[in-house]
Design a protein that fits this description.
Layout (H helix, E strand, L loop, with lengths): L1 E7 L11 E8 L2 H9 L6 E4 L5 E2 L4 E8 L4 E6 L3 E7 L4 H10 L24 E2 L2 E2 L4 E8 L5 E5 L20 E11 L12 H7 L7 H15 L7 E5 L5 E3 H10 L6 E2 L4 E3 L2 H7 L6 E2 L2 E3 L6 E4 L5 H19 L8 E2 L1
Parallel strand pairs: 2-5, 3-5, 4-20
Antiparallel strand pairs: 1-2, 6-7, 7-12, 8-9, 10-11, 10-12, 13-19, 14-16, 15-16, 17-18, 18-19
The protein binds uridine-diphosphate-2(N-acetylglucosaminyl) butyric acid.
Uridine-diphosphate-2(N-acetylglucosaminyl) butyric acid (EPU) binds next to β13 and α6.
Length: about 325
Amino acid sequence: MKILSNISLKPYNTFGIDVNAHKFVDVTSVQELRDVLKNTYASELFILGGGSNMLLTRDVEKTVIYINLKGREIIEESAHEVVVEAMAGENWHEFVLYCIENGYGGLENLSLIPGKVGTAPIQNIGAYGVELKDSFEKCIALNLQTLELKTFNREECHFGYRDSIFKNEAKDKFIIISVSFRLSIKNHKLNTSYGSIDQYLEERGVTKPTIADVSEAVINIRQSKLPDPKELGNSGSFFKNPVVSTEKLKALQQQFPEIPFYVIDQKQVKVPAGWLIDRAGLKGYREGDAGVHTKQALVLVNYGDATGQEILALSRKIQDKIWNMFGVRIVPEVNIL
Ligand code: EPU
């Protein structure tokens, strides 16, 4: 186990925010993790995975536990399916590529999402019509109080839109150690109808797409709109897409007939926050090094030396403007710490 003091967390968060951690522990096994936890109060812990869904606004005085557990294993196999278990510290996109290379279908639409395997279930990552929950089998998590392992099946995770039990009742009570996915080996169920995947494949004359084709399409579509955190600090979508009533949508349509929306049920629709921010004229807006991405208004970016406070101030300005212009409240998707 590696223990460091007073180190910068800049390389450990995709926003590239430069705050310090007083104590940083890099754990590579469950035993090491248990050892640290035995000597630290749960309230003194700061669990760090891929740092891809957080905005750090101040130095971290708690003990940062960097979950660096690695490995993947096939734990079940039949003629049609495999169950693959990946440790929490595995890079998400590398894991997706491993699945595609081995012909395991189910995660291809989730290609190129930043972050680690262990944090993916917390917000039930989703993109292009697929969510993690669709192929989730189970995850194993360490109880911070008892230091025992608990298995959560899909039902127990209470998955919702960018939501799970780990953001609610189980928050700060467990550390996810590994996640298992049930994936297809043949007769893959491809999901190409969302967004521009079909169009991308059609343009390239792909009539019978494979999981690798879908992954390639997703990678290209993402790269055309979403900034690469290695080049421009960001945390993906900063806000959730707000849910509004159908009455509210009708009122909005009077003024903005072109407003896009996704139907949830008879009473509710989801409106793209990116469209609202764009329509409010804030796409590409910049204050110092904090900005709204020029190609996708839902993403806030750090042009270099923005502080977490500056990004937070910008996000509040955006929330206010959206409220004043549309009467819709948008809330962050990222965790603000
Ligand atoms: N739009 C604009 N201007 C913009 C951005 C979007 O007009 O600047 C419009 C688009 O034209 C489109 C609509 O808004 O009509 C939706 O845009 P898009 O399809 O790009 O998706 P999104 O709603 O902005 C969501 C997820 C993304 C995910 C994509 C694709 C959330 C909060 N975000 O974005 O997830 O990749 O769909 O499935 O649900 C993430 O969570 O970090 C993330 C990137």
